Structure to design on (1916 residues):
């Protein structure tokens, strides 16, 4: 890629001719718009973009982007995407998936792709529900949540996507509210820049089956006081008055108010997304007050496809085999006359 | 010291045209190496050969235990050899356990060579012998050659100052030396082999050659030894050969297909016996740009393969029975998206985990129907170790030229068995033309089809202007967009079926071997070719009018199938399952009656049993 | 105000014996409720009924859009009703999109009721109408009743001070009122229903009843309305009934089996359309001790079910096509371990994701052969919404009495369709005797078998003295220990097959409906019963000698199957697939020729088309 | 159970009649012996013990214990076990599994059973290789490890079982060397006592395909200096001289020497296995020097089966349904006369 100057694309260039069929008011529309805005800002050719999904409302996404795409089978998007990337490492590979698709039936591929660190971007539409099948609890549904399959309340303790991802050695994890298109657009651009598997958890509201599950964090009225949007190298400050911040208290994080009890801006922890040690990232992910959004972890390491192709080069350079005929005639062969 | 005058050349030699020999001993006794050396030497001498290894199912069973016996069987001949053979002309048993577990395979009156040093009280117990078979007369029906191989080996090496372990480990070469003498074979190939292999450990090389020679000349001077045999070179076509097993041949067939088509080879696989060796082979060949990806499970194996196919690679996945079951849903996706992938299933004993190290043909119906919906796939089967190469190549060609998944069936018997392969050269192989299109393919789209084959076009990511989406939902025939239209669904269901059916126009006719018409037609498919061929050949030599057809193409079947069936009075379908091909034939060719001969014991057919069975049908005993 | 003297009783009424009515509108228009109310009222009046809902495949499509139309069809009669019906006598269309997408189903000359208020410019556009169908004459072949329902509803509620949204939402009741009048039905059931439902919102209850009455009396006084019809009560067997759909009936059948057998019910499942409602139903019934476990995927669903079966529960798993593919390997484990589980597969359009919300019968061969090795399972199929109850019960009984997995096939059509169910009482159901043994079962072990059924015994954890291990490897017939013995494997393969075959001794004979012998036998299986039955009944009424047999037991098949086939000149096998049962029958009953009638459109058979097809075979037009 | 006094069992009572068929010298023998020693020490009846496995050398384990058992299919042991436990919560359920069985094909069930916290015990035989299939790399194989399927060295970065488990919300995690039967036996007894899913990672040496992979930690000569065996409430001290210990250094752990630079025993961190906050456990798991063994995390929480049966009780007490006939006759029914 690189050398050839890439033509400037617009929103429309990436918009497909398919009628979008999510429920009116669904956050998925916000995600789609943000993506269509972000794609032209990336240094990628349209024909090099591939969207891959499993099954679910969120997995309809590829139909709405005018690029290459596979609407796969339930849970397998990450595995399909791994094959695409290994076949052609020049492609910009995106996985759009849901909390059920990625963490229920797809849980195994999810953790393994993070472990291998292929250079792809996984957008996790976490609405804490199975939308397409009309409302059963998912692995991220809260305890007590009433759904079609938990009429008396859910009794399966949920995963935290970020926590599981770190456990699976994720190198890039970001979280963002489903109602903040501007930040989302920027996140997508940064995720694409990151070399390695980037996981973006979107707090996506399902207006039909789990409406308001995130309001206490994402509602415009409370957002600033309940969300901490972290920036690498910046102090972790939040609140309408920008006067609340995080400090370390033993091995936990504590919220303090700048100006109270002698706390000054200098006391507030600086966010280091690039630090290999993931202990702080782990703590930030698990925090409920404030809920941390933005890029929490972003630590590059050699990608899996780089390891694959570097090793192949090395083997090739040490091998006497150029064509399969060389192989066929190697070792114990004999003539019949 | 062996005096110069007593050269092998002087001994009296009896001509035979084929022999079956089995070397058995502890996992540690090096029986595989011994067998391979004898095989290579015989092949280079010009014999036709077929071999089959028999490893214990335990990784490393305790020394001397019955289930720890490792064996290697080789069948060599001046005539055409098509199986590793049934009954043994010679059994070489390095310990009591080996004797006990293999005795029943030896033809009455034939030869057994034993290492008497290993018949200790302890070893006899481990082999669950109450009395010593060498003494209790239980071997009276055989010609037993008792040799103190261990001591003779020690004797031969006494001056080299080797440690005891290394000394004992080379006693298998003593046995090999004896067998070389018995079958009038030169030791040179093996001597060269050791010289090369231990270039940097000359002492080991020397030790081995000393012991082989010791065994060789010992036989010559030995009283009890019968006269020796010689097997003349067979009349195989001229050319360059190598001994190859089915799994290696399969892997190489894909390498050839990739080079011939100019495509990159992608393998997405998860280890499973007996398919794993294909993965082991392909991971070696990174120099050919092979991307062999060991996935987290079978489902990731095949779905990553589908992704690689979407992106334009020659994409394959390899597995065995239980793994194929796990891939069923994804095969449906490949059928629906019309992406070319090859699924190799090396069949083993089932159901469930079954008999994982044994052979069987019981996955045919799974290959045909093991997924939801009307989901036809191309199904083909290799029939010998060497032609696994050809069918891997053909599977690749059919997939990328017809844009649909191909299931290639082999089995544990041909996967691990070996035979000579007349080395092919890429230049003489058929062309493979993947259906790639690009912006210059005069406005063809990914959903346009070839009129004859009905295969759609292949537009891969990175191609400007051909961006499109595919998926598991039903698609509109023209636009490729998701469609719930009832009639379109019926049309597309027919297109997918017809596309597979029309492959019959691109595959060779079924050919009969031996009697072109007559009293009995023997029908088989896949890995049983060698056994059926041998049995039918034998019957024809005895003057019976018996034909043999063997299916390599199962879905679709060759167009002339019905004609062939109509040329015989009786038809018998022989399978290592309970009648899966028979079931298909009964449904498809109702006008014919199909007798069945089935065996589900984790073992190949016995040629002897086959002949007996066929004779009863020919009303003869 | 409506004056007392104009009572429905006074109106002139035409007698008909069956009508098909469809209510269509926006997802938000409450068509399902409207249809259900009309169905219940008619059923309670004594009619036989059958219904089918038709939801948009999108969760919540935009208002007025073509793909957002929600429909509910009901077929009521004084005669036997066995399908929701083909063509419509009455279409009630609440908006243009509903009219457009459903018009072709209306019989020429028959009635359409439309809400004219909804035929706005905007809605017409959304429905992709260039011109207003109410004005451009495109409905001339129908009897169109134009009613400004929305305004009339508003009018009727003006004094209640309701918000506009609630007002508009109750306009479906105006339509219902009109239909009640047209079909001479009492409003009481629905009035009671609202009174109960909105006990604590009396104003809503009042609003609804006002609007129904408004619709009812409006029709009565309306000029354009045709005379009304009445459908006499049908002659159904006496008893207590309820309207039930196939998924609920399936869930209840398992509840009944658990209570009857005294076992605890375990469900391990992963949601998938159209099977999920069985899970939704069973999670409600924790009061019966049902353990309904929503697993992380289909594989955990079935393997946890196998674990529950090992521990002694009545263990079932539910899924649809793609999910069944994922369960194949584990079904093999249940076969090998001989553990009793029931796998319910609610079939949908395939292959792959296919047409998830549509019906099809294309998983039959997958159910038969979709796993590795020789792995026979019992396969049965329900054929109507209500008898899903019976076959769920029978599947449970067969599993725990024969100790092997049972696959129960239903489909989206009967799973979502409803019909009257004569409520059964546990006391009158067959006994279920699980093969539990304990320390007192005079030294029977888990690997001992019943001589007749060949079913092994069931020793569950917690039972002292019967500790044992089972697994996926082949086991010795006597000891149950892992065995690689060749002959034992053949024997066990036969035992597993014979055990399933002998189930034929425990199932009822196949019964013919209508002509016991004659010119044509119509053969079907599963969810197509209603359509085939109606078509064959009609032909017999026209004097043709046509019989109908319908398979509920597919593996094994009833013993008298061949006899029945031999009684007819022609046999035609009708399936919503490309001929999967035909394929099996061709293989099993070679002496018979099987014609085929197949449809793969995601839709049920049309009775009209079936009759036409059968007549061509009867050489009549 | 409880009230009935349980007969005292011996090693032999739990020994099955099956000939053990692992390779001579395999650590699996040590694990088996330790288990047969541990079982009699537990308060469980023999007939209530169930061993469940997938496929692998490690999965042969159930054949060798004379209790109820299932040798399942590859990767599914945890799911099979969940069904057994839900069917009969009185049973003592054990899963024996390998690094491939549990973390490759079985990865999804592995993380979900930990999330749900059923009361069962998972013994993970981690030999960093696929043994039964004769030596391919596994998800725990090290980078660069040469195996049959990685002849040029493994290029897939490994999981850390404990790390993944914590990410999946594990409540009990312990690690132990394959050559320390005494500690192992005690661990098994303690795992059984713990209410909830206990995961025990065993550093199991495969003498044939990965011999010596743990020697640098487990070899008798270096063990005491390289391993820290933690005990709840005890200072984290190790070393032949018992003079090395752990202290906190920012958000990492540091090894110090007691007596040097004024470090006293009091400065050494006390191990708290029962603390809900998992940050320290996370750090201990990831430590390479020393390698931490023993019970690292042990925090009880309501088990899944308790949630299941408590909810069932509650529903039952509020329900008018006693027999299915009540259900069948509820709601809209009608008479045909
Ligand atoms: C093999 C298989 N199992 C189950 C399903 C049914 N199914 C489709 S989507 C889905 C879950 C959707 O939830 P999520 O992934 O969170 O996506 P959302 O709809 O919430 O965006 C399920 C269970 C399927 N299509 N295929
Ligand atoms: C479905 C399926 N896929 C693959 C296999 C082959 N297989 C058996 S065990 C195994 C891995 C064993 O490794 P591990 O779980 O670490 O156990 P170990 O032998 O090392 O104790 C594999 C790949 C199988 N039996 N079934
Ligand atoms: S169901 Fe929920 S997630 Fe799906 S489209 Fe509708 S609102 Fe969005
Ligand atoms: S292969 Fe390795 S793990 Fe398996 S039994 Fe042998 S030594 Fe143990
Ligand atoms: Mg979701
Ligand atoms: Mg392992």
């Amino acid at each position: 890629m690189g050398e050839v100057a890439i033509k400037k694309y617009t929103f429309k260039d990436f918009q497909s001719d398919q009628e979008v069929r999510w429920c009116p008011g669904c956050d998925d529309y916000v995600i789609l718009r943000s993506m269509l805005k972000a794609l032209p800002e990336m240094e990628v050719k349209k024909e090099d973009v591939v969207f891959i999904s499993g099954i679910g409302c969120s997995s309809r996404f590829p139909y709405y982007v005018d690029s290459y795409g596979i609407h796969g089978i339930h849970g397998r998007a990450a595995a399909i995407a791994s094959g695409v990337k290994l076949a052609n490492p020049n492609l910009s590979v995106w996985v759009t998936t849901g909390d059920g698709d990625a963490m229920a039936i797809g849980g195994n591929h999810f953790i393994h792709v993070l472990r291998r660190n292929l250079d792809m971007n996984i957008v996790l539409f976490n609405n804490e529900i199975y939308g397409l099948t009309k409302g059963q609890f998912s692995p991220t549904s809260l305890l007590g949540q009433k759904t079609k399959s938990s009429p008396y309340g859910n009794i399966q303790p949920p995963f935290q996507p970020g926590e599981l991802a770190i456990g699976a050695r994720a190198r890039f994890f970001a979280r963002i509210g489903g109602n903040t298109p501007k930040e989302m657009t920027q996140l997508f651009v940064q995720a694409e820049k990151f070399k390695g598997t980037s996981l973006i958890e979107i707090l996506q509201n399902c207006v039909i089956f789990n409406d308001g599950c995130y309001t206490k964090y994402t509602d415009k009225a409370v957002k600033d006081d309940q969300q901490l949007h972290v920036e690498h190298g910046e102090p972790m400050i939040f609140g309408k008055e920008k006067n609340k911040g995080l400090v370390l208290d033993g091995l936990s994080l504590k919220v303090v108010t700048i100006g109270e009890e002698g706390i000054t801006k200098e006391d507030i922890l600086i966010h280091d997304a690039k630090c290999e040690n993931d202990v702080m990232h782990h703590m930030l992910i698990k925090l409920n007050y404030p809920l941390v959004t933005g890029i929490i972890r972003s630590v590059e390491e050699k990608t899996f496809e780089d390891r694959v192709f570097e090793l192949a080069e090395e083997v090739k350079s040490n091998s006497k085999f150029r064509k399969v005929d060389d192989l066929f005639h190697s070792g114990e062969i004999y003539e019949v006359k | 010291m062996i005096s110069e005058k007593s050269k092998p050349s002087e001994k009296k030699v009896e001509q035979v045209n084929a022999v079956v020999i089995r070397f058995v001993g502890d996992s540690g006794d090096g029986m595989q190496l011994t067998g391979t050396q004898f095989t290579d030497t015989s092949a280079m001498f010009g014999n036709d050969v077929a071999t089959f290894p028999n490893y214990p199912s335990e990784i490393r069973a305790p020394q001397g235990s019955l289930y720890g016996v490792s064996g290697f069987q080789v069948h060599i001949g001046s005539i055409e050899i098509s199986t590793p053979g049934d009954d043994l002309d010679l059994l070489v048993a390095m310990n009591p356990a080996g004797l006990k577990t293999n005795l029943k395979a030896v033809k009455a009156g034939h030869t057994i060579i034993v290492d008497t040093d290993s018949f200790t009280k302890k070893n006899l117990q481990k082999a669950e012998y109450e009395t010593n078979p060498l003494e209790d007369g239980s071997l009276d029906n055989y010609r037993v050659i008792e040799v103190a191989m261990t001591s003779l080996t020690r004797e031969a090496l006494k001056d080299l100052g080797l440690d005891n372990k290394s000394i004992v480990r080379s006693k298998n070469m003593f046995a090999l030396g004896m067998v070389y003498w018995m079958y009038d074979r030169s030791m040179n190939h093996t001597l060269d082999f050791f010289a090369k292999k231990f270039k940097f450990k000359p002492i080991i090389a020397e030790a081995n050659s000393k012991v082989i020679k010791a065994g060789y000349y010992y036989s010559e001077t030995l009283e009890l030894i019968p006269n020796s045999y010689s097997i003349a070179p067979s009349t195989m076509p001229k050319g360059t050969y190598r001994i190859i097993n089915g799994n290696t041949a399969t892997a190489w067939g894909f390498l050839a297909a990739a080079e011939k088509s100019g495509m990159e080879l992608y393998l997405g696989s998860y280890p499973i016996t007996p398919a794993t060796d294909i993965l082991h082979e392909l991971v070696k060949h990174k120099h050919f740009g092979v991307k062999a990806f060991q996935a987290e499970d079978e489902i990731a194996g095949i779905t990553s393969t589908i992704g690689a196919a979407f992106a334009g690679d020659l994409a394959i996945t390899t597995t065995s029975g239980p793994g194929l079951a796990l891939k069923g849903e994804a095969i449906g996706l490949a059928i629906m998206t019309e992406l070319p992938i090859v699924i190799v299933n090396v069949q083993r004993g089932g159901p469930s985990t079954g008999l994982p190290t044994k052979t069987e043909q019981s996955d045919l119906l799974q290959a045909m129907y093991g997924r939801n919906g009307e989901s036809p796939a191309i199904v083909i089967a290799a029939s010998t170790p060497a032609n696994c190469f050809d069918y891997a190549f053909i599977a690749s060609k059919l997939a990328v030229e017809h844009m649909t998944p191909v299931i290639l069936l082999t089995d544990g018997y041909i996967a691990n068995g070996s035979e000579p392969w007349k080395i092919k050269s890429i230049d003489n192989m058929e062309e493979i033309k993947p259906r790639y299109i690009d912006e210059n393919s005069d406005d063809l789209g990914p959903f346009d089809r070839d009129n004859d084959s009905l295969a759609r076009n292949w537009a891969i990511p990175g191609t400007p202007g051909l961006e499109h989406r595919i998926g598991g939902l039903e698609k509109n025939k023209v636009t490729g967009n998701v469609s719930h239209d009832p009639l379109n669904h019926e049309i597309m269901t027919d297109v997918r079926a017809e596309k597979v059916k029309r492959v019959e126009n691109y595959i060779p006719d079924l050919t009969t071997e031996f009697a072109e018409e007559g009293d009995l037609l023997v029908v088989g498919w896949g890995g049983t070719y060698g056994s059926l061929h041998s049995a039918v050949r034998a019957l024809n030599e005895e003057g019976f009018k018996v034909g043999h057809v063997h299916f390599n193409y199962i879905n679709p079947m060759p167009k002339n199938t019905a004609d062939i069936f109509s040329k015989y009075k009786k038809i018998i379908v022989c399978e290592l399952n309970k009648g899966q091909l028979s079931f298909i034939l009964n449904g498809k060719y109702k006008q014919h009656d199909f007798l069945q001969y089935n065996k589900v014991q984790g073992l190949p057919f016995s040629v002897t049993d086959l002949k007996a069975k066929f004779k009863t049908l020919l009303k003869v005993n």
